[in-house]
Design a protein that fits this description.
Layout lengths: L14 H12 L2 H13 L3 H29 L3 H11 L8 H32 L8 H12 L2 H21 L1 H9 L2 H17 L4 H9 L8 H14 L6 H7 L7 H29 L10 H12 L3 H35 L3 H22 L13 H28 L2 H8 L3 H29 L1
This protein binds phenylalanine.
The site of phenylalanine (PHE) has 15 residues, from α1, α2, α11 and α15.
Keywords: Membrane, Symport, Transmembrane, Transmembrane helix, Transport
Organism: Candidatus Thiopontia autotrophica
Subcellular location: Membrane
Length: 452
């Protein structure tokens, strides 16, 4: 049986609180900003199908495993892995999973905060009426002005890091839980409003075909790797964020049910975002492969033309900020928990230290859109490189280790007790984490390496 360990950082008040927080972590810029733009860059339908497949056969079993490890270890990922490895009589080397998560946390949040800063600045533009009756061309110019200005971006990046670390410093119950209760449902409703608008935009069917007609000639090996990486990114997997949230999970909650709820909510939000954005792209003859600016260039056109657009536009960008906020908190939580546990810092101090480091790193992303835009490594700007390295390499490798540990290194009696599954359900999970997930990740990786 599981021994009663408690997290020194607190516990969620209920199953519902965990589901909300994990959904808050999962649903974020990844769904609304990134999913549409990488789908656009990778040709649409076939990419979406591979992504959905990755969510189902890799994302779901890894999420169950990651929550399970967290709840069993009840500490920051680094210390959880140390404790669990010892308990199972395995090498302390498994801790590397925790360390790579800490590094990924810093790197991911450093660019995530800059993009969230864009969303913050769009709240101000929206409320000021900048988007009223705007043309697609003008909308592109406004976005261009924002990213070419380092000072302005730095300002919003600083503000976003400030509000993130403020909540993190207040801790699990006070800070994290309260922030997500209302916002997730509101965001969902607003996305439905946008899809409703897109239905009448004149480009709806074209958008739907783009998203759901799978033409496999359009997808490359790199596209498959990006779809796999995005499955991890969007579900917050592979770097300890979901593990640490699992460590605050009460003992009596079903991990399987919670996982399905979060994965379905996350996927639905991404698909809704796609269905809101691509019709507008086609109705206005915009470019689906426009890159990271895609939603910032297209959505203002929709808000500018719809009745009540000032209100809906403002609300949308506010909610986008909140979605990013609740994700950002979870990206840095493993780092903060570790600093508290192992470096003896207070929560407040740990938040300040990690926030400052991330803020500094974020400056590189800010500059990669302007002053350093010509600075390229492997043909990628700093922002692209950070995103590629973390999302497509570090997260899948982290996920691979999680699957291997949960599937092979842990005793069956331990994982079965934690997951609380019936025999047949447990078998399916075990086959997935033992064989399907590792093979899928390795095949995608090897294919990719061959190409280089
Ligand atoms: N899942 C978040 C999103 O889609 C991003 C994230 C990545 C959060 C990794 C935590 C860990 O925006």
């Amino acid at each position: 049986m599981v021994e009663a360990r408690n997290s020194i950082h607190g516990q969620w008040s209920s199953r519902w609180a965990f589901v909300l927080a994990a959904t808050g972590s999962a649903v974020g810029l990844g769904n609304i900003w990134k999913f549409p733009y990488i789908t656009g860059e990778n040709g649409g339908g076939a990419f979406v199908l591979v992504y959905l497949l990755c969510i189902a056969v890799v994302g779901v079993p890894v999420m169950m495993s990651e929550i399970m490890l967290g709840r069993r270890g009840r500490q920051s990922p680094i210390n959880t892995m140390r404790t669990l490895a010892r308990e199972e009589g395995r090498s302390g080397g498994w801790q590397i999973l925790g360390f790579s998560g800490v590094l990924a946390g810093f790197l991911i949040l450093s660019f995530y905060s800059v993009i969230a800063g864009w969303a913050l600045s769009y709240v101000v533009s929206a409320v000021g009426g900048t988007f009223t009756a705007i043309t697609a061309e003008r909308s592109g110019e406004i976005f261009g002005e924002l990213v070419s200005n380092p000072g302005v971006q730095l300002f919003w990046h600083t503000l976003f890091m400030g509000i993130t670390m403020f909540v993190v410093a207040r801790g699990v119950r006070e800070g994290l839980e309260r922030a997500v209760r209302l916002l997730m449902p509101a965001l969902f409703v607003l996305l439905l409003v946008l899809v409703g608008y897109a239905m009448n935009s004149g480009g709806f069917m074209q958008g739907v075909h783009f998203l759901f007609d799978a033409d496999f000639s359009k997808i490359t090996t790199d596209g498959v790797l990006i779809a796999l990486g995005h499955a991890f990114f969007t579900l917050s997997l592979g770097m300890g964020a979901i593990m640490i949230y699992g460590s605050y999970l009460p003992e009596n909650v079903s991990i399987t049910q919670a996982t399905f709820t979060v994965a379905i909510a996350d996927t639905v939000v991404a698909l809704l975002a796609g269905m809101a954005i691509f019709p507008i792209v086609f109705a206005n003859s915009l470019e689906p492969g426009a890159g990271p600016g895609l939603i910032f260039q297209t959505l203002p056109v929709a808000f500018g033309a719809m009745p009540g657009g000032l209100f809906f536009g403002t609300l949308f960008f506010i909610l986008l900020v909140f979605a990013a906020w609740s994700s950002a908190i979870s990206i840095i939580e493993p780092v903060v928990a570790w600093l508290v546990e192992s470096r003896g810092m207070s929560r407040k101090r740990a938040s300040i230290v990690s926030g400052l480091i991330t803020w500094l790193l974020g400056i590189a992303t800010v500059l990669s859109f302007n002053l350093w835009s010509e600075l390229k490594l492997f043909d990628k700007t700093i922002f692209d490189l950070l995103d590629y390295l973390t999302t497509n390499i570090m997260l899948p490798l982290g996920g691979l280790m999680i699957a291997l540990f949960a599937g092979w290194a842990m005793k069956n009696s331990h994982s079965m007790g934690e997951l609380g599954l019936k025999r047949s359900g447990y078998k399916i999970w075990q086959i997935l984490v033992r064989y399907v997930t590792p093979v899928a990740i390795l095949v995608v990786f090897l294919n990719k390496i061959e190409l280089i």
